[in-house]
Structure prediction request, 302 residues.
Amino acid sequence: MTLHDVATAAGVFRAGGTDLMSRAPGGPYVDLHGVPELGGITWRPDGSAVIGALTTVADLARDVRLRAAYPALALTAAGLATPQIREAGTLGGNLLQRNRCAYYRSPAFSCHQDGGDSCPARDGLTLYATVVDSGPCVAPHPSSLAMTLLGYDATAEVYGRGELEVAGLYDDDPTRDHRLARGEILVSVRMPPPTPGERAAYHRAIARSEAEWPLVEAAARLVVADDAIVFAAVTVGGVARTPLRLPEVESALLAGESLAEAAGRAEARCAPQAQTGYKVALLTGTILHVLEAAVEGEKVAA
Prediction:
């Protein structure tokens, strides 16, 4: 089966299916597993990797060469969901999954996501909603891998569109969780060459010890030389309609501000919903945690 075959087939694309089956949008389904271009990890002469969209989350976490080249990505993959979901879920599926808002997923409500003209979550239960208010919809974007890939300046190869930055897969349009149109297929993610001396950390703040969606999550990539941070990439998730990179935190780190001062820079972005005020401190605390871990040279996920 070719990319053209699946792109023009009538049905809903299905990869690992861990999110698709929970939403049960109805068939027919178009299985992507027969398309060879979507699988595998290819290494280029400059040491960079091209990761097929059907690569499982578990493979991202345990591939030895990938862990050495892109530790923040591997740590994020190892920290999300459960072992069972990581074995079935794919890179492409994680990047293009739908949000977890209970109102969107309930047949009792209508919202921007399913053709409605309002966001019932704004006046309802907002405990898990955004704390960075960037548009009509307040459902946080659910992709942990997208968050971390922003910090690598990774690009996505999309059949029917070409190559674009991973950040370009998303916007604040309240009717969708990604910008791919019908017939467009995420083929692969292209990583830059590895950064020598990279230290990385990932952490998700959750309401229970396992199998929970993050209230806030953060990833940090740092290079430290002569006790100074000379490179920084800091990204966060669970707080906005799209995954976010925090240039204000990165600039503060490069300018020599303390880790706590740099983490606190993220607070200026926050405009909490009625019940998400707690996420402000959780956000800055999570950022500080990954910064401290990365500075110490630890490669941690929690």
Q: What stands out?
A: The chain has eleven helices and twelve strands. The first strand starts at residue 12 and ends at 14.
